[in-house]
Design brief:
Layout (H helix, E strand, L loop, with lengths): L20 E5 L2 E6 L7 E6 L8 H12 L3 E5 L17 H6 L7 H13 L5 E7 L1 H12 L5 E5 L17 E6 L7 H14 L4 E6 L19 H18 L1
Length: 244
């Protein structure tokens, strides 16, 4: 049996009233939130396996917008079913074949075009959580239009050297108690980046934190985790601010 990557019940969540709106961009639906003033800086937020409708990810979009960025979370599953809390982990490998985080290039291009042409964005960053963290890692190797990236607990896959020649500054965030990502994998990532990466990068591991820790809304946080969650989110924003 494959281990459930979430040690909290992702089904039990407080309600969340979103601050943004839904838009249709070519073949993709997206949730977008803008600050109250004009900005030419934008951040694409990539959801985890629970998809673009999940309240936690919309909270993150609103949070990024509150820091002064046009923030957008497209449906990178293109209308396909997200993973549900009632699904069985035995089926996860099959589900992943149909939801490949390495096949997001076309959608990323569509969203980048929209941000530049419709929203006036000149500098664009990307942040992604879990499944989205894997997608960020992939896109930061492929798409020079993305000025900076933050990958939060994206599983480190495909050990090949081109996996480490990032095009623009990228920050990797992990939880110390994440049982989907071993410490050896993080160490290897660090060694390989040192060897092959020509741009700024950073890796940080947050004490005692499990997979999915950085997405929780304040009322869903446990008091002992709150400081680390807030620190990880501030670190994410600081990285984006440094380069965008």
């Amino acid at each position: 049996k494959m281990a459930d990557p979430f040690l909290y019940d992702s089904g039990e969540r407080s309600r969340y009233r979103c601050l943004g709106q839904e838009v249709q961009i070519e073949h993709i639906k997206a949730y977008i939130c803008k600050p109250s003033f004009f900005t030419d800086k934008a951040v694409i937020v990539i959801h985890d396996i629970f998809g673009w409708l999940f309240p936690d990810i919309r909270y993150i979009v609103d949070l990024v917008a509150a820091h002064g960025y046009i923030a957008i979370c497209p449906d990178f599953f293109k209308g396909k079913e997200p993973w549900k809390t009632t699904d069985h982990w035995a089926d996860f490998a099959d589900w992943m074949k149909d939801h490949d985080p390495m096949k997001v290039d076309r959608e990323a291009d569509v969203v980048l075009k929209y941000l530049k042409e419709q929203c006036g964005a000149k500098k664009i960053g990307i942040v992604g959580f879990s499944w989205g963290g894997m997608a960020v890692h992939h896109l930061m190797l492929k798409n020079p239009q993305l000025n900076a990236g933050v990958s939060l607990y994206g599983r480190i896959i495909r050990d090949s050297d081109e996996r480490y020649s990032l095009l623009n500054p990228t920050f990797f965030i992990f939880g110390e108690k994440d049982h989907t990502i071993s410490y050896d994998q993080i160490t290897l990532l660090e060694e390989k980046l040192k060897q092959y990466c020509k741009v700024a990068y950073k890796i940080k591991v947050y004490p005692g934190q499990v997979h999915g820790f950085a997405q929780l809304k304040p009322e869903d946080m446990k008091p002992q985790d709150k400081p680390y969650i807030e620190e990880a989110r501030q670190d994410m924003i600081d990285w984006i601010k440094m380069y965008i």
